[in-house]
């Protein structure tokens, strides 16, 4: 039996991770444990005690920046890991963000708000850097992973978000909360449910696996990424029952058709794709 070795490329590549919240910190842990040895972490926030239940940080880190907390936790586990920390808001300094994307092999985005995603998407698109977006919703019952990879002619983030019913940028950022309102068991009312790691760990696993496969591709091995994109998919959704005691996940790959009037996608798509694209999305 032939045992494949981790590529040197994956060991050396710089992975940019924007946002070190619950999903971001778990993605960082996954990547470091998989052999990624250079992470650049971006986050504007500090650790609060309410974060600890579903975050890599400990009570020792409360009040410190999330990037330094995650860096400390990871480097104490993985001796060969280099972590660069960037404590700032990407919306406040697009030039700094752009340079970080230039310096990275891939950008992984675990941001809730839509605004930073559009900024990152546009910046990375024209730099031809792949971007993986990871998010959890529905009280942890849903996971969404989106790939924007200009070199592979995927649609942009905006077209992908539009395909699942989101369009444009919300002016007011979503309030950060450690709880969700989810339907009660009989569906008659909403009930508050503490956010836990239910959706966070699958989201982190999926996002980290996709990221690793892209690094393998960049290192010369296109096979792993085909498991994700072989059917043309650029979005992967995971679903489970919010109140299920036995979590059973259903994975649905999704092929997003770019909007015909999207200037960003039109800049790179082939004529054939452009003329066949329309606003009707496969379900
Ligand atoms: Zn587009």
Question: What can you see in these coordinates?
Answer:
The strands form two sheets. An eight-stranded mixed beta sheet has the order 3-2-1-4-5-6-9-10, sandwiched between helices. A two-stranded antiparallel ribbon has the order 7-8. The protein is built from ten helices and ten strands. It has a single domain (8-276), classed as NAD(P)-binding Rossmann-like Domain (Rossmann fold, 3-Layer(aba) Sandwich). The longest helix is centred in the last third of the chain and has 19 residues, at 200-218. The chain has 283 residues and is an alpha/beta fold. Mean pLDDT is 86; it is low at 270-283. The radius of gyration is 19 Å and the shape is globular. The chain has helices at 8-12, 22-34, 66-77, 94-103, 114-127, 157-163, 200-218, 223-229, 263-266, 271-276, and strands at 14-18, 38-42, 82-86, 106-109, 131-137, 142-148, 179-183, 190-194, 235-239, 250-254. Helix content is 34%, strand content 19%. The chain starts with 7 loop residues before the first helix and ends in a 7-residue tail after the last helix. Helix 2 links the parallel strand 1 (14-18) and strand 2 (38-42). Zinc ion binds at residues 155-156, 158-159, 258-259, 262, 264-265.
- Characterize the biggest β-sheet: 8 strands, mixed
Q: What structural class do you assign from the helix and strand content? A: alpha/beta
CATH class division: Alpha Beta
Ligand inventory reads: zinc ion
| Gross geometry | globular
Give the helix proportion (percent range): 25-40%
Total number of distinct structural domains: 1
User: What Rg is obtained from the alpha carbons, in whole angstroms?
Assistant: 19 Å
What's the mean pLDDT score?
A: 86
How big a fraction of the residues is strand?
Answer: 15-25%
Spans of at least 5 consecutive residues whose pLDDT stays below 50 are 270-283
> What order do the SSEs take from the amino end to the carboxyl end, as H and E?
HEHEHEHEHEEHEEHHEEHH
Strand order of the largest sheet: 3-2-1-4-5-6-9-10
Termini gap: 40 Å
Helical segment count = 10
CATH fold call: Rossmann fold
Q: What's the β-strand tally?
A: 10
